[in-house]
Amino acid sequence: MLPVRTQLPQAVGIAYSLKMDKKDACVVTYTGDGGTSEGDFHAALNFSAVTEAPVVFICRNNGWAISTHISEQFRSDGIVVRGRAYGIRSIRVDGNDVLAVYSAIHAAREMAISEQRPVLVEALSYRVGHHSTSDDSTKYRPVDEIVYWKMERNPVNRFRKWVERNGWWSEEKESELRNSVKKQLLQAIQVAEQTEKPPLEDLFSDVYDIRPPNLREQEKQLRETIYRHPQDYPSHVPL
Ligand SMILES: Cc1ncc(C[n+]2csc(CCOP(=O)(O)OP(=O)(O)O)c2C)c(N)n1
Hints:
The protein is an alpha/beta fold and about 240 residues long.
C-alpha cells in the first residue's frame, strides 16, 4: 500500500532547503481532500508556516476520499480555512474552471517565490470516475449525482466551449483529431499485442534483490496453479 500524503512534510523540507540556498524557486505538492485528514497534512502546513518555506500546496477537493464523503471527514468550510488557521495565505478556486485554476496557481507560485512563504490552493471539484479499478462508486453515491457532474459540470466541455467561442476550435477539427488519435491508438495496441510479454518471474523479481520466503511461496503456488489449470493461463506469456 502507498501511504497517502507522506510527501507533504517532505515537500516542506525541500522548500526550506531551496530557501536556505536562496534559490529562485518553489516546491509544488498535491493532495486530495482525503489526504488532508492525515496528520502529515497538519504537520506540513504548520512547519511550512513557521519556516516560511516557499511551497505551494494544491488540494483537489473532489468531495470523496474513496467512499468517504467530505461531510464525514471534516466539519470545517473545506480545506481553505485550515490553511488560514495555520497562518498560510489560502486561495479557493473553482477546480472545474481551467482558466481560474491557471491564474490561481500562477499567482500562488509568484507569491511563494517572491514573498518566500507557503501558499495553499483549494480547487473545488468532483471525482466523476471511480477511485481505482477496484472501486465501484455507484455503491456509495447516487448515479444521478455522477451523471450531473459528468455532463452539466464537465470542465473539459466548458473549456472547449470557450476555445470554440474564440474561434480556435470547431466540431470539424474535433472529429479530425479524434479520428487520427483513434488510428494511432489502434496501431499502438497492435504493436503492444505483438510485443513479447515479460516472463512470469518478473512479477516476483523486480522489488527485492534476494526474494523473501513469502514471495518464493507465492511464486511456487502460482506455478502449481498454472500447471493444474493450463487452459486458464494465456499461452503467449512465457512461464
Ligand atoms: C496512510 C494511508 N491510509 C489509508 C490509505 C488507503 N487510502 C488510499 S487512497 C485513500 C483516500 C484518498 O482520498 P483522496 O486523496 O481524496 O483521493 P480520491 O478519492 O479523490 O481519489 C485512502 C484512505 C492509504 N493509502 N494510506
